[in-house]
Specification:
Elements: H1 12-20, H2 22-29, H3 33-36, H4 43-50, H5 53-63, H6 69-91, H7 106-110, H8 112-134, H9 139-155, H10 166-174, H11 178-193, E1 215-220, E2 224-229, E3 235-237, E4 241-244, H12 262-268, E5 273-278, H13 290-309, E6 314-319, H14 321-335, E7 341-347, H15 365-375, E8 380-381, H16 383-391, H17 395-408, H18 417-423, E9 428-429, H19 430-442, E10 453-454, E11 457-458, E12 468-473, H20 481-485, E13 499-504, E14 522-525, H21 537-542, E15 545-548, H22 552-561, E16 566-568, E17 582-583
Parallel strand pairs: 4-5, 4-6, 6-7, 7-12, 12-13
Antiparallel strand pairs: 1-2, 1-17, 2-5, 3-16, 8-9, 10-11, 13-14, 14-15
Helix pairs in contact: 1-9, 6-8, 8-9, 11-17, 13-14, 13-19, 15-19
Length: 594
């Protein structure tokens, strides 16, 4: 297993493959305490900054077998020319210039040695990434190599080590060493937790200032609790809304604080809102399967909501993997001759897994088989490991930024509700997790009619008969927006005009949590033929119109269209068969995974 203190193995190809294995590279994302505070703690980082010819020659030799001669020579010549100019600038007393937000503080340019360290690091980073791009391998392997090199390059930034970070050094002098002492305390506390703190977690508590929209738990089983939110309008739509959040995270991302709560907004629009709160699996749930999440989870929730509301149909909403579960559940119901959905809304959801973005580097036959050997018959996939995986997708923002601020400068991270939620990880049952990896990410069977059997029936997404609202985020690195768009071709194949696609700005979470009251960002719609099944994502975007502000009102209008008539809001939650159990947000959401 490689760590930040380990020199690269003899073969660069072998070295890259090790980083592509999550069991190896995850150590890079854990607390880098061994070398962070010391001048000699990371010899390879020193080599990268100092730019010795031996390092470059060695890497070129290792990669030579995978590069066309012309590319190899071009990379070498370009690198040596830039390195020569940089050295000449230094010898002539000229301070290098660079544009990188990691080194935007004046301390980096004020000290010539620090500036040279940054310039050398950026040059070598550029060279290593160009080298990774030039290796002639299959596209999937190229993505793994690119990801592995990027992880290494980000980890070895001079900003990540006290000996090469002038900001941290200045802070230490200004505080007479107190920042260093505090940083060590922060690091030790995080080592105890097993993760890097991204927010002041003492500032939040579920049920106190996050997840506080009033409501009542009206049903529970071993897998989930069902929350019915209290209406705030005198009348409500007759057709209720069931929200199926991802089981890989907790539901309150949709109900953070009043000003950015999607749940609160929906209640204010006259919807009777029900929310599934998945239980955080413990060892007692280690044998739970995907079938259980569909049958005992989503389908059971749909039935309870219908009974409480006294309606034949409900509006169903799924977010991320919650959308995959919801769509699977409706396909299972369709195979049984039932159509319980008045509409289906999918946010940043994959049904066709042909393009899984950067997550593709974690899923291949070898890695899935390894998980199956250890978890397929029982066990838990720790939420902490899942959180590490997602942090690795944006390491500078979600890992190294906090190493620099929390440890090197001794700062307490600011209170941020979204990052508090992000750290509130959940486990996954091993059998469910393995089934999901193999049948969706690896083999992409969900989109193939009849290729999968769930809850005893073949799954065919084409049989779901209801209008759909599909949302993607333009900068989403987990569910690429054009991959989310592929659902347009899977649902309602005979009634494509029932499908509606909306594209929002920003990423996987920030794109969704875009309150209408703040009127920020923008979104794209395509009314002129935008619902055609034959259109590609690129064709859809070419004809789309950008609108300023939040897309939430677009969705609210969609729900109202299929919400039925308005009736007097119910005075009490539940009914005679489903009595109140406890106030929202309930017990399940408060069980920690770390």
């Amino acid at each position: 297993m490689n760590t930040p203190d380990a020199a690269p193995p003899q073969s660069a190809a072998s070295w890259m493959s090790q980083f592509a294995d999550p069991n190896a590279w995850q150590s890079w994302m854990k607390l880098p305490e061994a070398g962070m505070f010391g001048a000699n703690g990371n010899p390879f980082a020193a080599n990268l900054a100092a730019n010795p010819a031996g390092m470059v020659t060695g890497l070129l030799k290792d990669f030579g077998a995978g590069l066309a001669p012309g590319k190899l020579e071009a990379l070498r010549d370009d690198y040596l020319q830039k390195a020569g100019r940089l050295w000449q600038d230094i010898m002539s007393g000229k301070t290098p210039e660079f544009k990188d937000k990691r080194f935007s503080a004046p301390e980096w340019s004020a000290n010539p040695m620090s500036a040279f360290s940054v310039a050398s690091y950026l040059l070598n980073s550029e060279f290593l990434m160009a080298l990774a791009e030039a290796v002639e391998v299959a596209p999937r392997d190229k993505q793994k190599i690119r990801f592995a090199v990027q992880q290494m390059v980000d980890a070895l930034s001079p900003a990540n080590f006290l000996a090469t970070n002038p900001e941290a050094q200045q802070k230490m002098l200004e505080t007479n060493g107190e920042s260093l002492s505090k940083g060590l305390q922060n690091m030790l506390a995080d080592m105890q937790k097993g993760r890097i703190s991204q927010s002041d977690e003492s500032a939040f508590e579920v049920g106190r200032n996050v997840g506080i929209t009033p409501g009542t738990v009206v049903f529970e089983n071993a897998l989930f609790q069902l929350i019915q939110y209290t209406p705030v309008t005198p009348t409500v739509h007759t057709v209720p809304l069931l929200m199926v959040p991802p089981c890989i995270n907790k539901f309150y991302i949709l109900d953070l604080q009043p000003e950015n709560s999607l749940v609160r907004y929906l209640v204010e629009q006259g919807n009777t809102v029900f929310m599934m709160s998945w239980r955080n699996p413990d060892q007692a749930m280690s044998a739970i399967t995907w079938d259980d999440y569909v049958e005992t989870g989503a389908i059971r929730a749909i039935d309870v909501v219908r009974e409480i509301a006294g309606q034949d149909k409900v509006n169903v909403f799924g977010f991320c993997v919650g959308g995959t579960i919801a769509a699977t559940a409706l396909a299972v119901e369709a195979a049984r001759g039932r159509q319980p959905a008045a509409s289906l809304s999918l946010f940043t959801t994959l049904l066709d897994f042909a393009d899984t973005g950067v997550l593709d580097v974690f899923v291949d036959e070898t890695q899935v088989a390894r998980r199956e050997q250890t978890l397929a018959r029982g066990g838990l996939m720790p939420g902490r490991d899942l959180a590490t995986t997602f942090s690795s997708l944006r390491p500078n923002d979600l890992v190294w930024n906090y190493v620099q601020q929390n440890y090197l400068k001794g700062k307490t991270p600011p209170a941020f509700d979204l990052l508090y939620w992000n750290a509130d990880s959940t486990n996954l049952p091993g059998p469910m997790y393995c089934w999901y990896l193999r049948n969706t990410y690896l083999e992409n069977k969900l989109k193939v009619p009849g290729a999968l059997t769930v809850a005893g029936v073949p799954v065919d997404l084409r049989l779901i008969d209801c209008p759909t609202f599909i949302y993607g985020s333009r900068e989403d690195h987990i569910v690429p927006w054009d991959a989310a768009y592929l659902s347009m071709g899977l649902l309602n194949p005979k009634k494509p005009k029932q499908n509606r696609y909306v594209l929002g700005a920003s990423g996987h979470i920030a794109g969704v949590i875009n309150p209408a009251s703040k009127n920020k960002r923008s979104y794209w719609v395509n009314e002129a033929g935008g619902r055609s099944r034959s259109r590609t994502a690129a064709e859809w975007l070419e004809g789309a119109t950008e609108k300023k502000g939040s897309w939430w009102p677009e969705w609210a209008a969609f729900l109202a269209e299929f919400g039925g008539t308005d009736v007097e809001a119910p005075a009490e939650p539940g009914n005679t068969a489903y009595r109140p159990i406890e106030p929202a947000p309930g017990r399940y959401v408060k069980a920690r995974g770390d």
